[in-house]
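Suppose a classmate hands you a notebook page containing two proteins, each written out with its sequence and a corresponding row of structure tokens. How would you begin to make sense of it? This section walks through that situation. The first entry is reproduced here exactly as it would appear on such a page.
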Amino acid sequence: MSSLSLDVQISLEDARWKKVVNEPIESFLQTYIVAALSHPDIVLQIPKNLEVSVVLTNDDDIRELNRDYRGKDKPTNVLSFPQEVDLSTMKHLDACVLLGDIVLSIDTIQHEIMQQQKLMHHHLAHLIVHSTLHLIGYDHETDSDAELMESLEVDILHHHNIPNPYESDSSYMV
């Protein structure tokens, strides 16, 4: 999948996102979206020209989306909205294919890293990988699906020197 071309469209809805990681947020997002899409165990035939939309927002905005699309009237850390297209039929297209949208809330994520004593870089990378896998059809509705998805996440993060987020490992913690 080295020929993957990814266009990440970012909508910055909350200025606090500008200083979340020690590199431009665009580069950070691109790194972990590509890592998820190019993992060798991803068996889907993915088109070579892809677009992912990322909305960087806050609890007020994500709460509305969570309520309207999931029936849960509360904020959450991340939401994924896949495009619901058959990617295998588009694998030979040269045109750019929109995978879907990822929406991240700065408020909930900052609360989680403080409460769980995690590093922002690690936690955000995990959420990006997790939500990208949702965009290509992975879910955690059953135990076996959850195990598969978590295994992929852990392996992808490991290749970027980020420890297993599902374990209480001091190297993932602050």
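The notebook's second entry, a different protein, reads as follows.
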Amino acid sequence: MPDIALETEPHEEAGLLTDGFHLLIDALKLNEVENVYMVPGIPVTDLGRMMQSEGMRVLSFRHEQHAGYAAAI
């Protein structure tokens, strides 16, 4: 049976895993978004915290309509 050479050096990209929240935050930063208007809830609570830690201003509202009005001003 022929010897098979295996690549043993780790790829540089292996340690650069990310999730959707970080991708969204990076996209917003690339588009120079500074203020985020949101309705907090279980699925996006961590997203709001991550945005704040990245320097974005997160404004939370109880109703979508109020968030829309605030963003329009």
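A careful reader of the second entry would note: The mean pLDDT is 86.
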